[in-house]
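Let us practice reading a record.
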Amino acid sequence: MAEEGTVMGQDGMKWWMGTVEDRGSGQFSGEKDNLKLGRIKVRIDVHHSQDKGTLPTKDLPWCYVCTPTTSASISGIGSSPTGIAEGTKVLGFFMDGAAGQVPVVLATMPHIQQKGGAGQGAPGSGSAKENPQSSSSRDQAVAKAAGATSGQTVAVSGRTVTVA
């Protein structure tokens, strides 16, 4: 029998939302996914500083990306999860729970992106734009899902949010 705290999810899952900043190509972080596992760099809302001066893209941890069961995902056999592009909003969880060191992307989240402009879709380009009428309630939900408590001020998608 496993010791308490050693089984994923036993102590609760730590869910998060974030924005892809590098899909393993090294274009934005200068660091490639040399293991060729389809890993990506994600700035996780609430968990990571939104200030790239404080936490540059290259210092973000590699995130594993879940693939469908129709893909073997072993030794180069199966489909590639690299369809995710920079600027994509993603939903994930930490495989190591509260330690928050092994992020896994489970899905992409729909959002509206502006057309045109330099670095379209690139992180920090300002090209990702959400519906302002839904962003406040979404930001509150993201902050709460990430463990923020009432009255706490956190960063969500580059915005400062005080949890109600």
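A brief commentary: The radius of gyration is 16 Å.
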